[in-house]
């Protein structure tokens, strides 16, 4: 055992040692100290004001100010994105500004932008009205002219020419006159003209028809230009309409319907001369407003461009300030109200760095009193902190998704780095598909620097985060594919010739019948001659099923061995004697023995029926094995193993609860004169550091016994079900291989059998589509999820509690835009 104690500690094997610290910070140094600690990012603060609402805390006003500034910055960002301004790669350098100065600047910028937006919206509204009026004059004038006789039209054109050549002067602008629909002399028919959204035309016309009981004539024409909505900035299609009617009552109904549907009505005179004059005035006004709008947009874009140069820096500054004040709200004032008191967790290796940062904060703030930093007894279990890198982070996240390791508990991620991609590859083994996955992983790794700072979609973000997992999965898939000898389900003679050949000349072209073994076995993987033979499926089924059981028993044994290292680290000899030992005996007496039989059968080439051996080991252990005997002494060995398996169950169930009860009684009742710290539990507790010492709860024998009984039953039943669960390795590997074979033979080869280029191209396209979307996407996801289940359930439940919580230090680098 001394050998294990002398081994160097692994970074990922156990979480970093933590210590609980207290900080007493003078008020004048508090802000700077928290800033430096945020830059360092190695201290997790404990909320000392958890019983207070956010509005009862000390720095609530500062948090509100930061929230208001964040709102303004988001407003600026929305305005910049709506203006479609290209963001500059390098922000303009600016001298450091205080929060108060930044608040004033943001208020000025917001006021200026709001004024410009309001003016722009009013101008755009006026521009839209004039543009609509112009289109109504054009279209409605055409309706009115088309309704007259040709003689009247010619007379009007003559009058128009006379007026245009003479000294005709109107005393007032026709736009400023209140114009009403004229009464036509011949039939007393009135009309109302206007414009409406295209999507509302049909309902609008139907409503007019019903309101007037059909006593109206509705003409419409599409507008020549789309109108920009000033609120949404979207282009809206409009329809110009003219409604002819008779009577004042019908006029009132039509106007109310127009108002309800949001239709804008514009007066159109019947006189062509007046129409021409109004059109000219409208065009001149339109050009003036358009010039004003362009100037306003240019001015607004310049203002937004100047803001955009500093926007990222301002957002980062406000985000940091808000985080600082949120952290200060977690601290308490001391009795004198001159210092703030904070508590939190930090790794032991970070103590020197934290003390250095606090000393620097004291010096930079010109404080006469230094910051006190000292360790304390922990009120709770420490958080879990693993130092990971780009490669190990994804595997650690896979483990943390099941549950965060308890403090100093064995970390399964150390083994998951290898076992997870390997078990995936056992189910996905095909070195052709593995190469495709490898290319995808290499592309993601090559683009790592470019994609790291970008916002990706949920699927792409997950894929990019697991790029190194994908890399190892592809490499192991290539390895397992070489063992299975499958390249898109096609075998190749990569490592030499086959061990089988024809027994005579009559089967010179045979691939599956009449072959005999004539040389040593194929050096690596499955012999290519098995492909297409009548015994291919039974052979591969037997191989993969037995291999799955071997891999499962090995991984479950690894899990139980890790429980031993957990118990040894926490100095729990009860768990070693009454949990680890009986579990190892039970599992290996049954399924370890089955694995031994599989290996012996492979090595000897025996025809023994292992199903029969294992069944009758329980039903009639004393019967003669006959032809199922694999080695000498097998029968007495089976009886001994069966006896050990039966003994292991009560060994797990009964001793531990009664020993715990005895220790409890000795500590608190049975030996009142014995000094504390003499029992095994107390000696172990005294050796624990203060920051990691667990508080002993009240002992309840019935609860402990029921818990131990559940744990024992779960392990006994789980030993059977978990071993059977590893058969999914065989099932998914077989499914992947057969599905790949179907696509190759029934799609690609079938299409290639036709002497037609189009059919061949179609077959190739279908094969490529099936390979990419079914075999490379759906099968990859399926194998990934099954490998995940094998690790979470079959492997980790042997030793892993996962009842800890993550170390979440106060760090500016962990702040995200969502926290604005």
Automatic annotation (TrEMBL):
Q: Which GO terms describe its biological process?
A: vacuolar acidification
Per UniProt, what is the membrane topology? Multi-pass membrane protein
Q: What sections of the sequence does the record tag as coiled-coil?
A: 92-133
Task: Provide the primary localization.
Answer: membrane
Q: Which key words are in the record?
A: Coiled coil, Hydrogen ion transport, Ion transport, Membrane, Transmembrane, Transmembrane helix, Transport
Q: Which residues cross the membrane?
A: 422-445, 466-484, 547-565, 585-602, 637-654, 757-778
Write out the GO MF terms.
ATPase binding; proton-transporting ATPase activity, rotational mechanism
InterPro entries hit by this protein? V-ATPase_116kDa_su, V-type_ATPase_116kDa_su_euka
Q: How is this protein annotated for GO cellular component? A: vacuolar proton-transporting V-type ATPase, V0 domain
**Where located?**
Membrane
Q: Which family does it belong to?
A: Belongs to the V-ATPase 116 kDa subunit family.
What is the documented function of this protein?
Answer: Essential component of the vacuolar proton pump (V-ATPase), a multimeric enzyme that catalyzes the translocation of protons across the membranes. Required for assembly and activity of the V-ATPase.
Q: What is the name attached to this protein's record?
A: V-type proton ATPase subunit a
Q: What organism does this protein naturally occur in? A: Rhodamnia argentea
Name of encoding gene: LOC115752182
């Amino acid at each position: 055992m001394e050998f294990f104690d002398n081994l160097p500690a692994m970074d990922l094997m156990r979480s970093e040692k933590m210590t609980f610290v207290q900080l007493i910070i003078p008020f004048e140094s508090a802000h700077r100290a928290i800033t430096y600690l945020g830059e360092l990012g190695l201290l997790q603060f404990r909320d000392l004001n958890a019983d207070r609402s956010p509005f009862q805390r000390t720095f609530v006003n500062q948090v509100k100010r930061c929230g208001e500034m964040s709102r303004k910055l988001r407003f600026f960002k929305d305005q910049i994105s709506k203006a479609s301004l290209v963001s500059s790669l390098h922000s303009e350098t600016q001298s450091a500004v205080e929060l108060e100065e930044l608040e004033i600047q943001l208020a000025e910028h917001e006021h200026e932008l709001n004024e410009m937006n309001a003016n722009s919206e009013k101008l755009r509204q006026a521009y839209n009205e004039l543009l609509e009026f112009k289109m109504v004059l054009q279209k409605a004038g055409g309706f009115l002219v088309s309704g007259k006789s040709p003689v009247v039209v010619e007379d009007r054109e003559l009058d128009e020419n006379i007026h245009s050549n003479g000294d005709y002067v109107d005393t007032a602008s026709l736009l400023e006159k209140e114009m009403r629909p004229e009464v036509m002399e011949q039939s007393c028919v009135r009309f109302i003209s206007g414009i409406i959204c295209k999507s509302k035309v049909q309902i609008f016309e139907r409503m007019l028809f019903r309101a007037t009981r059909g006593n109206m004539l509705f003409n419409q024409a599409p507008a020549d230009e789309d109108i920009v909505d000033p609120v949404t900035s979207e282009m809206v299609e409009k329809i110009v309409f003219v409604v002819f009617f008779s009577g004042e009552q019908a006029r009132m109904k039509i106007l109310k319907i127009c108002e309800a549907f949001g239709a804008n009505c514009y007066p159109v005179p019947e006189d062509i001369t007046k129409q021409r004059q109004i059109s000219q005035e409208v065009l001149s006004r339109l050009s003036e407003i358009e010039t004003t709008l362009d100037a306003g947009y240019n001015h607004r874009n310049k203002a937004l461009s100047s803001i955009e140069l500093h926007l990222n820096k301002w957002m980062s500054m406000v985000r940091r300030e808000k985080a600082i004040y949120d952290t200060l709200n977690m601290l308490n004032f001391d009795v004198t109200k001159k210092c703030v008191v904070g508590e939190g967790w930090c790794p032991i290796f970070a103590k020197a760095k934290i003390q250095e940062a606090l000393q620097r904060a004291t010096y930079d703030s010109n404080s006469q009193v230094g910051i006190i930093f000292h360790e304390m007894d922990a009120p709770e279990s420490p958080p879990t902190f693993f130092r990971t890198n780009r490669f190990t982070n994804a595997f650690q996240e896979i483990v943390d998704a099941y549950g965060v390791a308890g403090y100093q508990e064995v970390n399964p991620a150390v083994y998951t780095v290898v076992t997870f991609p390997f078990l995936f590859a056992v189910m996905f083994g095909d070195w052709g598909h593995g190469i495709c996955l490898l290319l995808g992983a290499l592309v993601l790794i090559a683009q790592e620097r470019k994609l790291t700072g970008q916002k990706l979609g949920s699927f792409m973000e997950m894929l990019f985060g697991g790029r190194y997992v994908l890399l190892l999965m592809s490499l192991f898939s290539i390895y397992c594919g070489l063992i299975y000898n499958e390249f898109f389900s096609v075998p190749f003679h990569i490592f030499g010739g086959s061990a089988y050949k024809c027994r005579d000349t009559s089967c010179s072209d045979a691939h599956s019948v009449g072959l005999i073994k004539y040389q040593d076995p194929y050096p690596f993987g499955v012999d290519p001659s098995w492909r297409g033979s009548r015994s291919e499926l039974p052979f591969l089924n037997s191989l993969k099923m037995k291999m799955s059981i071997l891999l499962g028993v090995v991984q479950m044994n690894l899990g139980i061995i890790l429980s031993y290292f957990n118990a040894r680290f926490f100095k729990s000899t009860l768990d070693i004697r009454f949990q680890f030992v009986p579990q190892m005996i039970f599992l290996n007496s049954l399924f370890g023995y089955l694995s031994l039989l599989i290996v012996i059968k492979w090595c000897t080439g025996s025809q023994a029926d292992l199903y029969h051996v294992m069944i009758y080991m329980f039903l009639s252990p004393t019967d003669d094995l006959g032809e199922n005997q694999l080695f000498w002494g097998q029968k007495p060995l089976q009886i001994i193993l069966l006896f050990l398996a039966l003994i292991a169950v009560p060994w797990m169930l009964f001793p531990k609860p009664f020993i715990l009860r005895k220790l409890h009684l000795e500590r608190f009742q049975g030996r009142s004169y014995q000094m504390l710290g003499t029992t095994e539990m107390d000696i172990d507790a005294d050796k624990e550091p203060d920051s990691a010492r667990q508080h002993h709860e009240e002992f309840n024998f019935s609860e402990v016994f029921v818990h131990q009984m559940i744990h024992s039953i779960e392990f006994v039943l789980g030993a059977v079900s978990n071993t059977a669960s590893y058969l999914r390795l065989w099932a998914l590997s077989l499914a992947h291989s057969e599905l790949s074979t179907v696509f190759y033979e029934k799609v690609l080869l079938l299409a290639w059998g036709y002497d037609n280029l189009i059919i061949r191209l179609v077959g190739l396209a279908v094969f490529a589509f099936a390979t990419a979307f079914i075999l490379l996407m759906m099968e990859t996801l399926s194998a990934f999820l099954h490998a995940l289940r094998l690790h979470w359930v079959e492997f980790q439940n042997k030793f892993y509690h996962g009842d800890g919580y993550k170390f979440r230090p106060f760090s500016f680098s962990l702040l995200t835009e969502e926290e604005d």
